[in-house]
Amino acid sequence: MTLDAFPDDWSRALVVVAHPDDMEYGGSGAVARWTSDGKEVTYLLVTRGEAGIDSLPPNECGPLREAEQRRACAAVGVSAVEFLDHSDGVVEYGLPLRRDIAAAIRTHRPEVVVTGNFADRWPGGGLNMADHVHTGRAVVDACRDAGNRWVFPGAGGEPWTGVRYLAVAASPAATHAVDIGAVFDRAVASLAAHERYLAELGGDMADPEAFLRPIAEAAGAELEGATLAVAFEVHSL
Gene3D superfamilies recorded for this chain (predicted)? Predict the structure, then answer.
């Protein structure tokens, strides 16, 4: 498999994922590359990840994970971070979620919308979870919803039909990649910012460098001229 270079003819992106840490597990290196190239990137988190640490009750976990996400974003040059406050672990696909995401698209007017893998499985074959699946599918529909003035009228302002690309990180059907050789250290720093979450998680996924490097090397091997890369499934809209 050979991956094409990610399109570069855009200036604004909106990242929409379910939880703090979702983009950091491989995708944030691309954000570091984009911001270093002068592109504007905003993050929208569907939840605050409040159900993600077993040893902390949600009212304590949510604020902690929000703070970790803001530090993770700062590591890759992003200061605009918003949260929708849907409930972690029980995100539902439906009109309320589509409306919230469409409103954000109308507000921020991105040319690229990025989300996480919403296929049934991860590239390595493991099963995905409902929050990721429901969020990603809502993102796909919200990209269309945002451009139709008769769908969710008044949500987020005027319709926006300027989304040109939908990019899916960690997809088992990757088509494109972003060279992150010059910014890989920032990708590692962004995942490491989830310090308490990683400590609770333990195992292979708790070591940012060890987890991210082989994935980046595998993608880099498929992108001409790259050694480290982030892969995406990209669709033109």
Answer: LmbE-like
